[in-house]
């Protein structure tokens, strides 16, 4: 019922045969209100106070069936219901328009800003910084800036999750985000969507990340690894920034299904008398769930898209995770990411205390 | 106690301590409620009532007073939910992590809980009128015994009501809840009621403390924090999460409407995601059943390959027997839990 209803609400205001259904719904909830109404009248003593559905007010047919008296005139209720529905559709149409406009402005103003900066930068370079010449110089300075900026934050998350709720995924933008995270100094980055698109296109994502890494960071000394491969030691020098990070691709199977699999394992142990049910507690379950992943819990989840939900992202692991929403991953900029990291840096975790 | 009831009759307003406020909505509020109700409404809302202590600091009152005001706001919010047609509410009252707070604060909170549950026991008629069923979720064995008994009495007293439901999470964390569910399933295996291959997502959901409720449609956290803090992690995977910066004791009807609006905006995407997940779940269950049947046939096997029809029949038989096992196990689990509460409740009477 609702899927057809909401698909209509963005087009035109159409009449649909819902009122009958809605009336039933209202009638179900009415008993509580009626009881309350009666109670209120008794308690408050304000007899003259008007309520919408008042039983036994009209003198007509007081000896007749109570149900008939309860029912207000059909036409009046129907028209009220239609009116509310129209207002509701109008409200949602307004919100839809507002969201679209905001998204449009965000993208177009950013593009316009970038074009202007692109025009002005050569001029600025000419005036202020004789040292920074050419694209290579620019890239190096930007890379140093990433690392330096990362160090200015009070706290940096150890593990960031990128949760994409949008249906259409732009791999280049995701790759950008991953590379920026690594450049800023975040050790673990997870990428997730609830339809398993990243899982299925693992290699494509890897290619994009490599490509963007070249483009954005330039030098190959930025070492990173995808999935379970972990590279050598951390080398942080002033000129050359080398970061060691791990990128992991997640899907809904890593969430509830992993917990179920861990539960099955424990139950098998109990079946084979290797454990008893009393041995099972949070620590045991936690160690089992950590065994297959071997990475710390996400400190921060950046959620991209209009859907306000985690959509099945690692339920066990996100117990203390900050969830920061961003409007979209399409054409996302480094400043957007850094803004989110700044927000994370100032949050205070009291841990129950 | 009778004086308090006289006060209710005279002024038409409840006393400060009541669990349900009797105030009716204003005209504008009712209008807004009716407009919102034209769209999809959440049936189950969860609240993380954060910000009591910050409110106390802001208004220069004692922390205890902040928590008290928080409870008042809860009573008011329940009223609004009923008016909006939301019949199930879950609240995060006290986390197991909160035991880390100072002894003074923890004792104060326990005392507040005692007062409220005592008040609840005196409000039986009111609760019956509204048909409110109170459930308490969490590891109650961590609480002082007298409070456990009070809680048990309240739960048993309101058990039969079925118009609206209030789930209070007390001494609760989601990880404990999930670990406890796994423990219960292991107990079932120990008792020979189920096999380890029967363990599934659906079965785990049925073993959680919240098994009698559907998953929350909407989760609201106040005071501006943007994390879940170990609350309903399993159940809110596909719920709408709304983080609002208002402090809990300052929560208003308009904040609630804003949250519901947010829910309505995300409704379609969430439905889609939930349906996708349900399909995946059903598929996984079927695969699991198939592999179990294949294993069974192998064990039983005498080398003859089975034709598709008899394999299908075996599969159906296996599924039916699995469902029967699970049903018996869940009945036993429910019985265990009911006995726990009724024993505690009768202890209270004796004491």
Automatic annotation (TrEMBL), chain A:
<protein>
    <recommendedName>
        <fullName>ditrans,polycis-polyprenyl diphosphate synthase [(2E,6E)-farnesyldiphosphate specific]</fullName>
        <ecNumber>2.5.1.87</ecNumber>
    </recommendedName>
</protein>
<keyword id="KW-1133">Transmembrane helix</keyword>
<keyword id="KW-0812">Transmembrane</keyword>
<comment type="similarity">
    <text>Belongs to the UPP synthase family.</text>
</comment>
<keyword id="KW-0460">Magnesium</keyword>
<keyword id="KW-0472">Membrane</keyword>
<dbReference type="Pfam" id="PF01255">
    <property type="entry name" value="Prenyltransf"/>
</dbReference>
<dbReference type="InterPro" id="IPR038887">
    <property type="entry name" value="Nus1/NgBR"/>
</dbReference>
<dbReference type="InterPro" id="IPR001441">
    <property type="entry name" value="UPP_synth-like"/>
</dbReference>
<keyword id="KW-0256">Endoplasmic reticulum</keyword>
<comment type="pathway">
    <text>Protein modification; protein glycosylation.</text>
</comment>
<keyword id="KW-0808">Transferase</keyword>
<dbReference type="InterPro" id="IPR036424">
    <property type="entry name" value="UPP_synth-like_sf"/>
</dbReference>
Automatic annotation (TrEMBL), chain B:
<comment type="subunit">
    <text>Forms an active dehydrodolichyl diphosphate synthase complex with NUS1.</text>
</comment>
<keyword id="KW-0472">Membrane</keyword>
<keyword id="KW-0460">Magnesium</keyword>
<dbReference type="InterPro" id="IPR036424">
    <property type="entry name" value="UPP_synth-like_sf"/>
</dbReference>
<dbReference type="GO" id="GO:0016094">
    <property type="term" value="P:polyprenol biosynthetic process"/>
</dbReference>
<dbReference type="GO" id="GO:1904423">
    <property type="term" value="C:dehydrodolichyl diphosphate synthase complex"/>
</dbReference>
<comment type="pathway">
    <text>Protein modification; protein glycosylation.</text>
</comment>
<dbReference type="InterPro" id="IPR001441">
    <property type="entry name" value="UPP_synth-like"/>
</dbReference>
<dbReference type="GO" id="GO:0005789">
    <property type="term" value="C:endoplasmic reticulum membrane"/>
</dbReference>
<keyword id="KW-0808">Transferase</keyword>
<dbReference type="InterPro" id="IPR018520">
    <property type="entry name" value="UPP_synth-like_CS"/>
</dbReference>
<comment type="function">
    <text>With NUS1, forms the dehydrodolichyl diphosphate synthase (DDS) complex, an essential component of the dolichol monophosphate (Dol-P) biosynthetic machinery. Adds multiple copies of isopentenyl pyrophosphate (IPP) to farnesyl pyrophosphate (FPP) to produce dehydrodolichyl diphosphate (Dedol-PP), a precursor of dolichol which is utilized as a sugar carrier in protein glycosylation in the endoplasmic reticulum (ER).</text>
</comment>
<keyword id="KW-0256">Endoplasmic reticulum</keyword>
<dbReference type="Pfam" id="PF01255">
    <property type="entry name" value="Prenyltransf"/>
</dbReference>
<comment type="similarity">
    <text>Belongs to the UPP synthase family.</text>
</comment>
<protein>
    <recommendedName>
        <fullName>Alkyl transferase</fullName>
        <ecNumber>2.5.1.-</ecNumber>
    </recommendedName>
</protein>
<dbReference type="GO" id="GO:0045547">
    <property type="term" value="F:ditrans,polycis-polyprenyl diphosphate synthase [(2E,6E)-farnesyl diphosphate specific] activity"/>
</dbReference>
């Amino acid at each position: 019922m609702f899927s057809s209803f909401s698909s209509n609400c963005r087009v035109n205001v159409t009449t649909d045969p819902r009122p009958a259904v809605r009336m039933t719904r209202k009638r179900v909830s009415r008993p509580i209100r009626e009881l309350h109404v009666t109670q209120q009248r008794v308690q408050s003593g304000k007899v003259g106070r008007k309520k919408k559905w008042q039983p036994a007010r009209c003198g007509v047919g007081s000896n007749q069936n109570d149900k008939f008296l309860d029912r207000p005139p059909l036409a009046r209720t129907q028209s009220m219901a239609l009116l509310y529905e129209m207002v509701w559709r109008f409200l949602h149409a307004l919100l839809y328009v507002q969201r679209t406009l905001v998204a449009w402005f965000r993208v177009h103003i950013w593009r316009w800003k970038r074009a202007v900066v692109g025009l002005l930068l050569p001029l600025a370079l000419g005036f202020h910084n004789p040292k920074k010449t050419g694209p290579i110089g620019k890239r190096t300075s930007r890379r140093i800036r990433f690392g330096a900026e990362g160090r200015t934050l009070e706290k940096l998350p150890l593990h960031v999750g990128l949760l994409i709720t949008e249906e259409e995924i732009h791999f280049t933008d995701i790759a950008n985000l991953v590379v920026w995270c690594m450049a800023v100094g975040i050790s673990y980055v997870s990428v997730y969507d609830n339809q398993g698109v990243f899982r299925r296109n693992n290699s494509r994502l890897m290619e994009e990340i490599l490509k963007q890494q070249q483009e954005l960071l330039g030098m190959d000394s930025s070492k990173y690894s995808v999935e379970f491969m972990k590279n050598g030691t951390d080398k942080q020098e002033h000129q050359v920034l080398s970061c060691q990070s791990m990128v992991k691709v997640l899907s809904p199977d890593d969430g509830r299904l992993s917990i179920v699999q861990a539960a099955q394992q424990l139950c098998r142990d109990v079946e084979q008398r290797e454990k008893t049910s009393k041995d099972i507690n949070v620590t045991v379950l936690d160690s089992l769930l950590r065994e297959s992943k071997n990475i710390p819990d996400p400190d921060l989840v950046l959620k991209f898209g209009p859907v306000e939900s985690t959509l099945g992202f690692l339920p066990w692991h996100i117990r203390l995770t900050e969830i920061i929403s961003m409007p979209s991953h399409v054409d996302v900029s480094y400043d957007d990411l850094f803004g989110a990291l700044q927000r994370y840096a100032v949050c205070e975790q009291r841990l129950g205390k | 106690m009778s004086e308090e009831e006289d006060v209710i009759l005279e002024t038409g307003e409840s006393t400060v301590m009541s669990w349900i406020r009797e105030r009716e909505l204003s005209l504008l509020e009712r209008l807004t409620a009716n407009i919102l109700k034209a769209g999809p409404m959440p049936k189950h809302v969860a609240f993380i009532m954060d910000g009591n202590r910050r409110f106390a600091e802001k208004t220069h009152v004692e922390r205890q007073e902040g928590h008290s005001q928080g409870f008042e706001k809860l009573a008011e919010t329940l009223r609004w939910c009923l008016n909006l047609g939301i019949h199930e509410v879950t609240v995060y009252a006290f986390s197991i992590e909160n035991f880390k707070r100072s002894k003074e604060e923890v004792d104060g909170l326990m005392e507040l809980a005692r007062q409220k549950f005592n008040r609840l026991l005196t409000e039986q008629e009111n609760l019956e009128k509204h048909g409110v069923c109170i459930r308490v979720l969490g590891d109650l064995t961590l609480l002082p015994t007298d409070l456990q008994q009070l809680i048990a009495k309240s739960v048993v007293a309101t058990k039969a009501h079925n118009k609206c439901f209030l789930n209070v999470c007390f001494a609760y964390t989601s990880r404990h809840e999930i670990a406890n569910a796994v423990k219960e399933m292991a107990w079932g295996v120990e008792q020979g009621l189920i096999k380890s291959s029967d363990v599934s997502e659906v079965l785990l959901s049925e073993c959680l403390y919240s098994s009698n409720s559907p998953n929350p449609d909407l989760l609201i956290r106040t005071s501006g924090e943007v994390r879940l803090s170990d609350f309903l992690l399993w159940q809110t995977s596909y719920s709408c999460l709304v983080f609002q910066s208002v402090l809990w004791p300052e929560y208003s009807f308009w904040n609630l409407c804003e949250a519901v609006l947010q829910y309505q905006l995300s409704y379609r995407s969430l439905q889609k995601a939930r349906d996708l997940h349900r399909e995946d779940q059903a598929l996984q269950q079927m695969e699991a059943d198939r592999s179990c049947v294949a294993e069974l046939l192998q064990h039983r096997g005498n080398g003859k390959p089975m034709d598709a029809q008899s394999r299908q029949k075996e599969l159906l038989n296996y599924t039916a027997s699995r469902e029967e096992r699970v049903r018996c196990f869940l009945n036993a689990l429910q019985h265990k839990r009911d006995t726990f509460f009724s024993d505690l409740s009768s202890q209270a009477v004796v004491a």
